[in-house]
Amino acid sequence: MWEENFDTEHEVGQKLDYSPVSWREYFDQMEDVSVGPADSRDVYRIYKAGSEGPLLVLLHGGGHSALSWAVFTTAITSRVTCRVLAMDLRGHGATEVHQSDDFSTQTMSSDIANVIRACYGAAPPPIVLIGHGVGGAIAVHTSSSMLLPTMVGLVAIDVVEGSAMEAHHSIQNFLKGRPKSFKSMDHAIEWSVKSGQIRNLESARVSVVGQIIRCEVEETDTLEQASPVTDVVVEHNEEFYDQSYVDDKEDAASESVYKWRIDLSKSEKYWDGWFRGTSNLFLACNLPKLLLLAGIDRLDRDLTIGQMQGKFMMQVLPPCGHAVQEDRPERVAEAVAAFLLRHKFAEAIKETRSPDSLTQ
User: Fold this and answer.
1) What is the pLDDT of residues 23-56, one digit of tens each?
2) What backbone torsions phi and psi does residue 233 show, to the nearest 5 degrees?
3) What are phi and psi of 56, to 5 degrees?
4) Residue 229 and which of 30, 93, 100, 103 are 20 to 30 A apart at CA?
């Protein structure tokens, strides 16, 4: 856990590196995919890896971006032969759409289908849809709507209707409790790790870049009205708030500031639609399914009964925050790889043995 990491840091006197890392360290390519009529096209930012095997379509949580899957992508592609497509959902990351405030499940599900069609035509490879948080809910709705004819499997990560619905009352307060701007990208990354939002420094260094955008100092007046962003499942981490992370107005004349790319609080009217009924939709999906949870307390009644009846695979991961695939990318990759291999969706990558080991 991050608390242990920082205790170690102080003991050995080392200073951690909070500088951002490029997506190129984890993905093979980045593309901007255009969808719609020429005069009103929407543009979706996607990241790809791999060239063979099933297509893993990765949907991030609210307020995050496709880069939250970066470390996981390296981990999964080293275990099984597969292709990865991680996309910035509408209103998030570098995706630019005309109706960026339309977060309805129908619209967001259509986005997934449109991007895949634009990339692979009418006959894409076998698809395993994997979603975290809000992305997990959208994955369930996309599957339920049968928008992806070649879809063969579904993985939902830390998305449970019961706990998500209960969290609605405290979300806005949690959103308002975060810094509204940062002096630098490094400060934003450091805050994310020390606050417990992302407990894995490696992942934070690549993924926070997709959550934060640089602004000119003239925009600092508007930052006071902006609400910061998080996902819709609230984490009760130890409070971390240091004024040194927040841009000082006295220095505004000489510095740029970094603010959150999306004000997720404005999507409140869609929160109920994202999660209500998702447990039953998940159970009704007639495909192999895997549910990964940060804690057993997340499980609601419908899913508990369904799990006892063997309707889906489930795994509770070691202690981690809501950003499961960022906090524990190796463990999530192990679970997803086992799921893919069990259902023969993918083949394991054989370990290569060195010449020395063959002669021993």
Assistant:
1) 999 999 999 999 988 888 999 999 999 999 999 9
2) -100, 115
3) -90, 110
4) 30
CB 56 within 8 A of CB 84: yes
Contacts of 357 by beta carbon, 8 Å cutoff, 6+ apart: none
Tokens of 335: 């679970």
Q: Please state whether 82 falls in left (phi above 0), alpha (psi between -120 and 50) or beta.
A: beta
148-175 pLDDT, tens per residue? Answer: 999 999 999 988 755 554 555 666 666 7
Distance between CA atoms of residues 40 and 31, nearest Å: 19
pLDDT in tens, 216-239: 765 444 444 433 333 333 333 333
Distance between CA 174 and CA 189 in Å, rounded?
19
Q: Which of 90, 95, 47, 94 is nearest to 72 (CA)?
A: 47
SS3 of residue 43 by DSSP: strand
The residue whose two tokens read 């709705």 is 141
- Residues in contact with 70: Cβ distance below 8 Å, sequence separation at least 6, in sequence order: 23, 25, 26, 27, 47, 203, 206, 207
Output the pTM of the full model. 0.84
Instruction: Tell me the residue ranges of DSSP E strands in 139-245.
Output: 151-157, 181-182, 212-215
CA 228 to chain centre: 17
Q: Which burial class, exposed, middle or buried, applies to 350 when counting CB atoms under 10 A from its CB (0-12, 13-18, 19+)? A: exposed
Here the tokens at position 76 are: 């999964």
DSSP annotation string for 303-355: HHHHHHTTSSEEEEPSS--S-HHHHSHHHHHHHHHHHHHHTTSS-BPPPPPPH
Cα of first residue to Cα of last residue in the chain, in angstroms, is 39
Q: Per DSSP, what are the bridge partners of residue 181?
A: 259
Q: Which residues 6+ apart lie within 8 Å of 272 measured at CB?
A: 165, 168
